[in-house]
Amino acid sequence: MNVLFLCTGNSCRSLIGEATFNHLAPEGWHALSAGSKPLGKLNSRALALLEQEGISTEGYYSKSWNDLPLTPDIVISVCGNAANETCPAYLGPVLRSHWGVEDPAHAEGTEEEIKAAFIVAYRILRYRIEQFLALPLDELQHDRDRLKAELDRIGNLLP
């Protein structure tokens, strides 16, 4: 199963979701990320955080949802609400869920406050991914309604 983490710029949250999911996922499950208006570069703070966590980002890049190499089975949007973000809506025959996370790339304040915003976003996404991967995936991949309900439930969880 292929899971797409989707946001607008594809430089930070969707990258964190993609890299963390692939780091933790069992065989047969794979994540990718994209944006509706990609920035064309990955956020250096997000890359540094993932490296610090021992998660590889090799081969990842900021890309448009129009340039995906495959059609995902599941699309998880990760846009937040604080900055009045417009969250892209992926159209197509996929299972969709929303896991809103505020964009740490827009954090302001001291270096420590900005770093803390990235850590919060990472911890939220990692926790939700861990909850997702703890589900009976072999069973749920054949029960779309139940999988959708579980993904929506997970999208409201906080660590």
Automatic annotation (TrEMBL):
Listed SUPFAM superfamilies: Phosphotyrosine protein phosphatases I (SSF52788)
Q: Which residues form the Phosphotyrosine protein phosphatase I domain?
A: 1-135
What InterPro entries does the record tag this protein with? Ptyr_pPase, Ptyr_pPase_sf
Tree of life domain: Bacteria
Keywords assigned? Arsenical resistance
| UniProt KW Methyltransferase keyword | no
* Example of a GO biological process term: response to arsenic-containing substance
Pfam families from the UniProt entry: LMWPc
**Protein name stated in the entry:** Protein tyrosine phosphatase
What organism, scientifically named, is this protein from? Methylobacter tundripaludum (strain ATCC BAA-1195 / DSM 17260 / SV96)
Species lineage, top-down?
Bacteria, Pseudomonadati, Pseudomonadota, Gammaproteobacteria, Methylococcales
